[in-house]
Amino acid sequence: MVSVKNHGRTMVIAPTGAGKTIMIGLVAGRYGGRWLVVQHREELVDQNRSKFRLVNPDWPSSVFSAHQKRFATIKPDIAPGAVTFAMVQTLHGWRSRMPFFDGIIFDECHHGVSPTWGAILEAAVEKNPEIKVIGFTATPNRSDKKGLGPMFRSVADIVTFSELIDGGYLVPPTAFIADVGIADGIANAKRTKSGEYDMFSVADVVDNDAVTSRIIELWAEAAGERQTIVFCATVAHAEHVTAAFNAAGHAAGCIIGESDSFERRQTIKRLERGELRVIVNVATLTEGFDCQPISCVIMLRPESFASVATQMIGRGLRSVDEALFPGLGKKDCIVMDFGQTLIRLGGLEQMIDLDGSTREKTDSIPAMKICWNLKCARPIPVQARQCPLCGTMKPEPKKEENFEIPSFSLRPFSMVLKQSAFRWVDLPDRDGVVRGRSRIASAGELWAVAFADMSAVWHGFVCHSKESPPRRIAKGTIDEAMSACDAWLSEYGDAKKYSRSGYYLRIDATEPQKKMARQLGIPGGARGVTVTLYDLGCKITAALSRERIRIAFEMAGRDDVRAVA
Predict the structure, then answer these.
(1) Residue that finishes a domain, picked among 351, 366, 391
(2) Is the pTM value of this prediction over 0.70?
């Protein structure tokens, strides 16, 4: 890993299903020597050790936990390295007696800002000032906004959901948002100082027999044959939901923080064997939980932070090993959001940057940029929207979107877009001309817009900058609309400059371009704000073509549709 050589301490961001444990084994195997793998949950110790052996079967290994305390030693005649899998809570008390390690790996390293993890790192560095330090996490951006800079000096790479879905390692999510009469109650629920929902206040709204019954009915219609994980607001809420599923004839089990490890393992085994259809929890199974048969995620509580929301959704995205679960045939994951989380945070494409890096696929070294915070100024991948090391967000205003949700129903919600040949930018909406999820792409003098109507039907319109009015070339799914627009832009526009691999997506906007954006009242035109020439160009095109875009919506309106999410 180049970042390890250059910076000594680096981290890898990879979502559920990326194979972080296999990566850990490959990294340690590449360098050899004595390694320490630190994790915070007992299940992760056993899971990491068993998968590590798949990569380095000859390496001596040991476990350092409350039940056994032994550091693995190298046996040169057998293998070039050894690894110790340690529980952070136990290792902290023994850190002064740690031996010399060549490298230390922190699993779920977003916990690393705690004093306990920091003390272990200090003790390891004291024994070996040149120790290699690597962290792995799916969610580096913490809800408390604390960065991981004190532990790491760079980010080696970000693996995106879209890469894993395209590669077959994850299944695509099919999401539904719903209101069963509780949207207003959730919106008015109390918040903590950090901005997170007070779950006891939320429970006053969602922990209702009538609401739970309706939710189970909708689940049975949409995903009743799927093994399902449910996230609830409080322990009492989880117990009530579990009882309701069982009463309705759907075998359900419940895991809460107070569950002992044996009970937890038995419940999970029953789920894997197919004895349970549903497993219910509060915030216990958001990480370190791997059950491939799960193909439905129900969110019965709102979530303020994207990092937690992606962990929840990720529980159902793992593809299935046919050797372990023959005939299961898992092709996608249904996500049912009753807590309005996706509406506020957007889909996975907003929570985790699915636009991806502009580097070529054959490039083995990820493209990097410097953090926007000059006091941090450390290298992070080009696709990052927030610096995982200091927590600074990309200086771009958040776009608010209007959503109208029919009560007591499910409605599809697009979470992941297939990779388009062109980069699509959210369509600016200053005065309500364009409402909801709408996008624009450009190829020089040509542009295309796509938007969804109330029935979740997508429309694709294309236009030449000197041509009026725009022309609709597609109506159907999001893929159909955007693919048709892509094909038109590729055929008639300059794809070499404007496509995802084109020149304009890799350079910053010019000052004259920013000046024009400021004159048009477009966000992103401020001095000192980093925005690409292409992105700002699309927004300027949208502003200059407002009347043509308005015509597009009027044309769609003649089909009795409205431009909404």
Answers:
(1) 351
(2) no
